[in-house]
Design brief:
The protein is α/β, with parallel strands linked by helices and 155 residues long. It contains five helices and nine strands, in the order βββααβαβαββββα.
Length: 155
């Protein structure tokens, strides 16, 4: 069942890069930008991560925490963060339970071959833990700026 604006964001607790645990309940009282991406260190995912990273201070000033989520391992996340100097947390959902809860683990198709994968999606959660906005099928260029505007508009 797809998520909708206004409903409570599904809680989660996942291992993150650097040995941290990332839980939505632990971020209560802050706006949270959850961006779901397919794979560490691929061109689109790297550009998206760099976009959010470049605006890190602006997101923090707007009272928001950015969290990247993919099915990659913590070890992969650690390498990805180190390689690009990423300053925000990356959550690892190898079991895909959170990806499924947020409706972003979907059947995809490439060159006629069907497979399961992450649909690039961003979810903005307000300080009360409700979904404020959803961006499905994200196109990377300019996306982080658009999300930052939405965070600021939440006040």
């Amino acid at each position: 069942m797809p998520l909708e604006q206004g409903q409570n964001a599904p809680d989660f607790s996942l291992p993150g890069a650097g040995g941290e645990t990332i839980a939505l309940s632990g971020l209560k009282g802050r706006k949270v930008v959850l961006y779901f991406y397919p794979k560490d260190d691929t061109s689109g995912c790297t550009l998206e991560a760099q976009g959010f990273n470049a605006l890190g201070e602006a997101f923090a000033a707007a009272g928001a925490t950015v969290v990247g989520v993919s099915p990659d391992s913590v070890k992969s996340h650690d390498k990805f963060r180190a390689k690009y100097g990423l300053t925000f947390p990356l959550a690892s959902d190898e079991a895909k339970s959170m990806l499924e809860a947020y409706g972003v683990w979907v059947e995809k198709s490439m060159y006629g071959r069907k497979y399961m994968g992450v649909e690039r999606t961003t979810v903005l959660v307000d300080a009360d833990g409700k979904i404020a906005r959803i961006w499905p099928k994200v196109k990377v260029p300019g996306h982080a700026d658009e999300v930052l505007e939405a965070v600021r508009a939440l006040g």
